[in-house]
């Protein structure tokens, strides 16, 4: 009998320790809810107060209540606190299997594409990357690609993305490996986006918080576009720039095609 199976019961803490090195941490009820909705494989999930977590599901997520009932194991507060970097107000945490890179790349490269890929060129801020993945999920973007050293599956990014990594393709690539499609790069010096229709197969590229678009990304860009901004304001925050651009893309779908 393994450590994980005693008295016919699996010990979720043992399972957790076995899987933690390779799995994706789903930190909090909402991350777990989103991951389940979008088909994540979740081998272990714990709650400090299982009844409270299921009551939250009754209220906010009846569609995944049964899945949660089957998955969630109650653990003492001290065991939970030892598993997560910082406790979440909902007292819920889970581990999910990270989707394969091959599957993610196939999804990103598949043509024809019905929604853009968002490219973050050398982003620095983990919270921004998470917010962008949440935006990509909301707008049904094909995926989010990052260049540079930031890991888009870092636990802080997954926390910022509220578990929505599982609804879209998220991979790190070099500029030379970007998926096919015309690159529309966002830069305050570009042409006004309001006069441009963004196609569904576009790669929408955004520069880093510190230094904007890299020379490599600029060289790959087919178009440079700017968001309306009055003089004396230097730039918008990265995630808000992505939000405005995806909203602009979505408007084209809402209008009759010319
Ligand atoms: C915080 S800004 C980068 C500011 C940076 N200091 C620079 O020199 O560009 C991050 C990214 O958001 C996008 N962005 C911000 N404001 C924009 C604007 N007014 N028009 C187009 N893109 C913008 C660009 O892609 C930019 O690289």
Automatic annotation (TrEMBL):
Return the SUPFAM superfamilies for the record.
Answer: alpha/beta knot (SSF75217)
Source taxon at top rank: Bacteria
Q: Which UniProt keywords apply?
A: Methyltransferase, Transferase
**CDD domains from the entry?**
SpoU-like_family
| GO molecular function, a single term | RNA binding
Which BP terms in the Gene Ontology apply to this protein?
A: methylation; RNA processing
Entry keyword annotation includes Transferase: yes
Q: Which InterPro entries match?
A: Alpha/beta_knot_MTases, rRNA_Methyltransferase, SpoU_MeTrfase, tRNA_m1G_MTases_N
Name the chain's protein: rRNA methyltransferase
User: Which species does this protein come from?
Assistant: Streptomyces actuosus
Top-down, what is the taxonomic lineage of the species of origin? Bacteria, Bacillati, Actinomycetota, Actinomycetes, Kitasatosporales
